[in-house]
Amino acid sequence: MAIAANRIDMRVNEQVKQLAERAANALGCTVTEYLVRLIQQDAPKVLRGETEIVLSNAQFDRFAELCKQTTPPSPRIREAARRLDTEGF
């Protein structure tokens, strides 16, 4: 493991601290190593949940069908697009 250069300070109640210490001891590592391991395992799952959309086949088929349908933009949408072009967006 690389030498740590950054700190995360946190306060927890006694029960949480003891639980972390017991779990770390059971794994034969320090509380810091235990918490780092938990973060490395859990954070990617959390981030995937924020960046991925999972659809069923039926949902995807419906989405694809809707994408094929075209409706001409309304005059209000055309005017908004023209103003955005004029303003440099």
TrEMBL record:
PANTHER family: ABC-TYPE TRANSPORT SYSTEM, COPG FAMILY HELIX-TURN-HELIX PROTEIN-RELATED-RELATED. This is DUF1778 domain-containing protein. Belongs to the TacA antitoxin family. It comes from the Bacteria. Gene3D superfamilies: Single helix bin. It holds the Pfam family TacA1. The keyword Repeat does not apply. InterPro entries: Ribbon_hlx_hlx, TacA_1-like. Keywords: Toxin-antitoxin system. The keyword Repeat does not apply.
